[in-house]
Specification:
homodimer; Arc Repressor Mutant, subunit A; 6 helices; 2 strands; disordered C terminus; DNA-binding
Chain lengths: ~120, ~120
Amino acid sequence: MTKTKKPTLAATFKLLSDPTRLAIFDLLMQGVQCNCEIGDQLDLEMNLISHHLKALREAGLVNVERDALDARWMYYSINREMLAELNDQLAAFLDPHRIQPRLPTCGPRLVPATDIRVRGN
Amino acid sequence: MTKTKKPTLAATFKLLSDPTRLAIFDLLMQGVQCNCEIGDQLDLEMNLISHHLKALREAGLVNVERDALDARWMYYSINREMLAELNDQLAAFLDPHRIQPRLPTCGPRLVPATDIRVRGN
DNA sequence: CATATAGTTCAACGATGGTTGAAGTATATC
DNA sequence: GATATACTTCAACCATCGTTGAACTATATG
């Protein structure tokens, strides 16, 4: 069992930023699971799907297991825990309540021209 | 007032997938606003910041306004409405409750080998 | 009108990464 | 053991895009 490091927020966004990979992810959300099923629905080659699934798997978002009856078939599924964690993280990051008012540290309002004139002359 | 098309989910993920652009976005969440302030805090050139701000602006996530006293200064801010909309959209998309159980459309369980043998011979 | 400042746009470079076809692996069947 | 199947890995190509430096724009000041 390899322990994977927690990816950065930017890395997670990048993971989901590719349309093909996002489509695969969305299909898994709908319960579709084996490689060939995804290929049929998205009309993509298996090696390409495998490539994207690997990325999703390495990020911990997706799990794999082999069929008990025929181990050639592999079933992919969303990792519920990781998804919930990601969902919370994004919701916190994008929460509109986090938006603060302006904190002026530069600009004309900090040093009005009138003040300078009075002091300097 | 230019009407901007609603970007795809993948496009939005891509927008936030660059570490520099994400850092700029996060600073704006904290209320920092003019280009030079961002440059000071992230130690980046103004043209680079301008480039990323343009991308955020074109996606509708960020607003600009010129200073009333000195129009050379431009203040950037998060578009609250768009952020709230995005937040809702992502929360819906990544909702763990959306995950469905397996919907088997292929695999060995659909056509057991025993059935074929009986019928074929 | 000349100079300075805040910021944008442009052109070019270079790295990242998605896509493709072919070879390779693992498991099952005959 | 040979062949078929489900899938993975590899190498190479190519487009996208973040970065950089320089030129350009807009506004303000003297």
